[in-house]
Amino acid sequence: RISSPNSSSLAVINQWCKRVFDAHGEIYDYGQLMKLAAAAKPLRSLVNPNDPRFLNPLDMAKEIQNYCRDTKQPVPQNVGEIIRCAYESLALKYRDTVKSLEVLTGESIRQIHIVGGGSQNQLLNRFTADACQRPVVTGPIEATALGNLLVQAQADGELKNLSEVREVVRASSVIKTFSPHGSAPWSEAAGRMENFG
């Protein structure tokens, strides 16, 4: 089991893109962005989320478009295509990270557990399950606050061990599992993404 870095990566991409869309008068909430991305054509264009150009761009949407142009891919033209490109690229980066962790540890990773705010993005969670070909388990949303509370409860003797802590988390949180489907398109896309470095 690993914790995906998606909450921070996703927050950066979503916030930067949303800021640009808002500045251009296209006001969307995060749920709307997710719906527009779901309606866009799958695995059309990809970016390497670790490319330095995405660290602090003035215009995240334009950087995504420029990256696709520079790598001779179809350039995302609308909000849905830009966000879908970002989500699918993140999911494929998680796939690469999982494989690297397996090589480094010599252990098989059977599932991915996503906690915090990123666990609310059902589209990215589904993409991650499909790209990684592993179940994605999400929740709790308020992982940091709950973790702090449970550590204190264990220190006070209210909970005896880690098993009891985990049981409280399961009982007090909405936990959802996304099962993987359709590996072939994601494997092909992963092969394309390897060329980006």
Task: Characterise the protein shown here.
The chain is 57% helix and 6% strand. The chain has helices at residues 6-23, 30-39, 60-70, 79-105, 122-132, 143-155, 162-172, 183-194, and strands at 2-3, 112-114, 136-138, 176-178. It has a four-stranded mixed sheet, with helices on one face. 34% of the residues are buried. Residues 1-8 have low confidence and may be disordered.
Task: Count the E strands.
Answer: 4
Largest sheet: 4 strands, mixed
Total number of helices:
8
Widest sheet: strand ordering: 1-2-3-4
Beta-strand proportion: 5-15%
Q: Output the helix-strand order.
A: EHHHHEHEHHEH
Low-pLDDT residue intervals, each spanning 5 or more residues:
1-8
* Inertia-based shape: globular
Indicate the radius of gyration in whole angstroms: 18 Å
Mean pLDDT: 87
Distance between the termini: 26 Å
Please specify the SSE layout and strand pairing.
Elements: E1 2-3, H1 6-23, H2 30-39, H3 60-70, H4 79-105, E2 112-114, H5 122-132, E3 136-138, H6 143-155, H7 162-172, E4 176-178, H8 183-194
Helix pairs in contact: 1-4, 2-4, 4-5, 4-8, 6-7
Short description:
With 197 residues, this protein is mostly helical. It is 57% helix and 6% strand.
Supply the key terms.
four-stranded mixed sheet, 8 helices, 4 strands, mainly alpha, 197 residues, 57% helix
